[in-house]
């Protein structure tokens, strides 16, 4: 992948028509207009629509859309604004829905014929998105995307009402905080890497036809969305430079390449305004392409505007604002479009919307539907894809390849690869040793190859494979009655009750710890997990699952040595279940959620039937090798709506790794989870550590391929692995520059750096060669020779980083500009070249609100990771020098250089940003021209609080700097009520750092010193 290669752009080829065809088209349009005027344009029966122009494939997409839009009634168009667009029988038009989840394979959809019930796919499950990202292989992601697109078409062929072709993937939110619950859904903390991979995945799903779409990929979630805590009410503070340079990048790249066909608005607010009504959706996002985009809201977002966000008083106002902001489809109220239809009607009646606003949104949706081939007689070039495309042998092989490419070798002191002799004894232990987990955005696994399965298959019948999950098996004996808690022995389990006379299998539970003391309980009699599901408790769950994950507990030891059991399903479940969090025993012996405190809870004696660590150690003793598989349960350890509280691995799992390694030093740790983890301790515990995401149905085979050397690992980390939670700010703080986070700004010592990953081979890099040592408006090619100096074939991921040495503005320590994954035979050398365009080195100049390439030496660094640079060069970039900031004309307050305190807020509900300040806060505008003599300070301000306050202008320092003057700010009666205030201030010849310093609560949108 070259730095210059803008992602593949798929354009529409010029159409060549004969004069006759042009005349026919013109006459048809005139006839249509005449018929519409006389009310005769609409056919009386569906079969009559077959000859209508919107079904004519010789016409352009725009012409077909124009025709169809003109035939729709206002009521039909309003109904099309909802996620579930109803059928129009009189035109022979079927229903249409936005939204089939396809993050790492076709996952699930909702069925409008069954009240919106979730229907789960059973096709090919590829590695989680974070795993696909760790391949650093754009070509692979395009092949995976193509497979997913074909399978989406296959499901659509089976049930087009449920399985829509507007797919909600990929997720491109940059992973700036590894604690974010949806970390598993993204690719990387780097915008360029994310954008490149997303372009490939979306491009594969989109298909390679210049006009038609195999599917219509929708990027999630625009923009500034990483925290799940209070996700609909927290506001991401995105100063302009960071939004342009970082947060927008992975959205912009796939849309510029015409690989994606729209965005989904995120749940959060940005600078005080809900993204559902952000004008950026209709203005900035649409400016990135000439193609028509179909933008959608996330689920329930329209209602959040009048609910949790309390941004509008009525749904009519909210829906009108959403449409005007550039959103075309409302994902809300499940399959019921009634509230949306009613609100839009009301908005029209109140003059909040015009029919033209509705037409614009419907036109966008119809354009995508035409491009999907819906109105073509044969369904278009992808119309013949059917159910035979689902779960093919080819796709299964691709799943194994992707899972293998994704694995990252973090540590290796010679322990890997393992010897594959058939008479070996290998122990595979750990809570994830013999199971596979799916996640919220995964389809059902069509089959499962667990790590233990993969090792068995690889070694064959002659080897001995010992397996232990390494978890305790316990029995709980209720103190008052002496009875054991039991579940059912059949596949459906039974209501848990304290009715057992002994600790037989029905009374035995395997305890899986997932961190923070949270455990799941699996009954030994039927291998099912205990769940609540609004009561009663039953052992009937195949794995922890569901939106509220009601299979979570804590075993809390009391001072007398007994235990109480706390149910810790998500807090929202608590609210629905009432105040009681603790388990009690009813008079009939059933286990209930009946106590608010531990003092009121039932007391249990915990009997350890099987010591998990001891069993795992026994399996490990004397083995030729031990593979201990630890990690996460995706429904528990961070997911949508649930951020991780810590980067730590569960303590019980750490004890297992260390204990097994003590029993057998030939232990390899496999970490299977979806995010960075603080595992610096593992370097001292085991000789090798291998990381994988939850990698789908072929996890075990792919793992065995790597463990035994059939595949030489070459995955690379796409996030910084921090040493401690203390290295990170609060999860809702998005200023990576100010906080020094991600590899671009973090100057600490991570456990593993961005781009890190080891190999069974070694690679040498030559000196960097440049096509020119000077860049002045033209591209420069950066080349390096890479040689495999090892004794086996392997992949190397060659990475190009840059650093701008001098600048008016703080610059990243490193920025990824190009990468390429190459395969080399032993002794083979290949030249890897990257083409740098001047625009690649641009950054956002807040003083003028535009991109700028500054004159500066540029450090070029080529290597195997961001902290493993093998070759360097310097490029003399000749651009421009940012002039001193001019303050005579009005300056947007949000275009500051630095700050203390402050909040970025909405200037008005429709558009504009402002800055909210209070006493102790300040804003800095660096290197500004103030001018000598007396000056006038003018500001647009708002103050909701009663009484006046002041805003000071200082130079040099916000507290001790010279005071140029003070302006009085009156109460304006509201945060959106702005007034212009002015005051005479002293001049200051030359250039200065200018500070705005308030003495009380106020908002500033613009100011000048003239």
From TrEMBL:
Keywords: Hydrolase, Signal. It holds the Pfam family Glyco_hydro_3. Gene3D superfamilies: 2.60.120.380, Galactose-binding domain-like, Glycoside hydrolase family 3 C-terminal domain, Glycoside hydrolase, family 3, N-terminal domain, Immunoglobulins. InterPro entries: BXL, CBM6, Cellulose-bd_IV, Fn3-like, Galactose-bd-like_sf, GH, Glyco_hydro_3_C, Glyco_hydro_3_C_sf. Residues 889-1010 form the CBM6 domain. PROSITE patterns: CBM6. The keyword Signal applies. One of its GO terms (molecular function) is hydrolase activity. Belongs to the glycosyl hydrolase 3 family. This is Glycoside hydrolase family 3 C-terminal domain-containing protein. It comes from Nocardioides astragali.
